[in-house]
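Predict the holo structure. Ligand: NAP.
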Amino acid sequence: MKRISILGSTGSIGRSTLSVIERFPDKFRVVALAAGNNIDLLEKQVRAFKPQLVATAAEDAAKALSLRLGADAPDIIPGVRGMAAVAAADGAEVTVSAIVGTAGLVPTMAAIRAGKTIALANKEVLVTAGELVISECRARGVQLLPVDSEHSAIFQCLLAGMNRDIKRLVLTASGGPFRSASRNELNAVTVAQALKHPNWNMGRKITIDSATLMNKGLEVIEAHWLFGLPPEKIGVLVHPQSIVHSMVEYCDGAVVAQLGMPDMRGPIAYALSYPERLDGVSPALDLARVGTLTFEEPDYDRFPCPAYAFDALKAGGSMPAVLSAANETAVSHFLAERIAFRDIARVIRGVMDAHATRPVASIEDALEADRWAREEAENIITSGRAGT
Ligand SMILES: NC(=O)c1ccc[n+]([C@@H]2O[C@H](COP(=O)([O-])OP(=O)(O)OC[C@H]3O[C@@H](n4cnc5c(N)ncnc54)[C@H](OP(=O)(O)O)[C@@H]3O)[C@@H](O)[C@H]2O)c1
């Protein structure tokens, strides 16, 4: 019986994680849950999974949840202190890191410092503070298991060979809903259109990141830290069917790929049960029915965000944190219909161009770069410098 803590239990990854746990009650038990402010869902989750500890982002949400649960209420702690407590909950062996954005960084570090195995969905954690996170994991002997489907795929493909024989990693990208759109069409994209991902059902921020292809850029940085490879050895290939989740090319010309239906329960279950595999966790892949798998080069002229991520990775230091925070700010403005779709990339480029890269020696340095980038992005947006 593995005991699990979940950061971000009310989100898309959090809900899928609970559905895996629910299906295998003899294998997993939930000990702690943390969410933002969706207490309607959190209340249901607490009643169903009976964790000993719960956290909410805000104090009033914690009070309201406690009132609703009455005598059934577990310990409920609000804010950053609550997130850290859930991350490091007594008895938990695995902490699922599935809060969206930089808000997940401090709790994930708390889980690492408490020696928990990390099932990492939150890619922004590694983009913002990859070097610190990886060195903390090494120092504490903590295992970081990828939940992102591409990184889970690569993790599995790496079992087929030795690290010194890797020629390159190839991250596949669906291309998002605007893969074939012209520049003019991209100018007119609405929020509703951008939120309609062709293959995956995910949270709002990652769905927009998939439409701009920034998701792939963030994943390149995530892969760099997870697998210890330089940017030249990480490639991106557009694969609209999302069946090949990623691949590893070895020095002898062999390419090892991992395939499956696009369903996050697969990589989540693999991270929870590793090295074991759970029976029938995601729908079987029927390749004859899928019929055709196609691949094409990404077009960085129409979708420049992944190229910016490569630039940030090469610049190092605070630049990836700046890229991620500028993106988070721009995406939230796009979702609020204050900027256009193509302005997201312009804001990110503007913030990166205004940034003088600094070393990141501590979490505080990473958070300071993040804070600076959000402020700069707000300035660019409010001054109208984002628009064409
Ligand atoms: N969805 C996917 O298929 C997928 C795939 C690969 C990787 N990922 C990564 O996994 C992470 C989560 O993605 P998602 O799609 O699950 O996002 P989501 O559906 O938007 O869920 C985000 C979760 O984070 C919580 N949250 C937000 N701000 C918070 C804060 N300040 N403090 C505490 N909790 C906070 C939300 O709580 P409330 O809703 O209660 O406010 C929710 O539980 C992202 O980093 C994403 O890139 C997702």
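The mean pLDDT is 97. The radius of gyration is 20 Å.
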